[in-house]
Write a structure and sequence with these properties.
Elements lengths: L1 H85 L2 H11 L6 H18 L6 E8 L4 E4 L13 H4 L6 E2 L15 E9 L6 E10 L1 H8 L1 H5 L29
Helix pairs in contact: 2-3
């Protein structure tokens, strides 16, 4: 009985050892197999992530380039509008006649009134994005405007007047004047006014555009208003595009 018991005990120990060894061997084999799978999975994930990031950046670059093109087209259009207004014979003739008269002369007031009306009803209405139009004499004084409250104001120190005497000029973003409290920032586009016969300088015509127009271009609303069939909103609802000036400050709403 004692010998059988010892044999059974020995047999049990051997079986237990074999089972433990087998379990460890299986675990080692499984672990060895899992390491390459995990490595391959990680590499695949990293590769897919990098590809998606590259594709996203490429897509955003295309969108940014398109929006930049829209803005440049708008800038060229508003410059062309200023040049067009500066070649208007009615504006040039009235400005020339006014500068030959004293501002207290009744004829000056009549010319000013007719020019104000022409700017407001025949020029500003051509472009709904124009907020204000000035005709400024050589001294920088506003002699005609779509807003009569601005008459007599001095623009002599403003960059759009100084540069506007030399050629078409577009200013950086400007803050509203005190008379226009509560109005959003604007961009001024100016061009020289010249006598029709001699070409001598008469003054400067200045168109003021609401800066919110830039945000409408970036958001796609401007394109829709002009008849575009598609626009950015709806395709990428989470996309946010805005402009930053040289001082790293937002110039369009975030």
């Amino acid at each position: 009985m004692c010998i059988r018991s010892d044999l059974d005990l020995h047999h049990g120990i051997v079986i237990d050892f074999i089972m433990r060894f087998t379990a460890k061997l299986v675990a080692a084999v499984v672990l060895t197999a899992l390491i390459p799978v995990a490595a391959i999975g990680y590499l695949s994930y990293s590769s897919a992530k990098a590809a998606l990031e590259k594709q996203a950046l490429k897509s955003l670059t295309v969108i940014a380039d398109a929006k930049e093109g829209h803005l440049y087209s708008f800038f060229e259009a508003v410059k062309g509008r200023a040049i067009d207004f500066s070649s208007d014979g009615f504006i040039r003739d009235r400005a020339e006649a006014m500068q030959k008269l004293d501002s207290k002369d009744p004829r000056f007031a009549e010319l000013q009134k007719s020019l104000n009306k022409h700017l407001k009803h025949n020029k500003q209405t051509l472009d709904k994005s124009i907020r204000l139009i000035f005709v400024v004499d050589l001294n920088g004084n506003v002699i005609s405007s779509t807003d009569e409250r601005e008459l007599g104001a001095s623009e002599s120190d403003d960059d759009y007047f100084v540069h506007g005497k030399k050629g078409v000029y577009m200013s950086d973003l400007r803050v509203p004047p005190p008379i226009a409290e509560g109005v959003s920032p604007y961009i001024a586009v100016s061009a020289p006014l010249r006598v029709r016969e001699t070409g001598s300088l008469l003054g400067v015509i200045i168109n003021f555009y609401d800066a919110l127009m830039l945000n409408k271009i970036l958001s796609g609303k401007f394109q829709l208003e002009k008849g575009a069939l598609t626009s950015l909103p709806g395709r990428r609802k989470t996309l946010n595009i805005y402009l930053v000036n040289k001082g790293k400050l937002l110039i369009t709403p975030s």
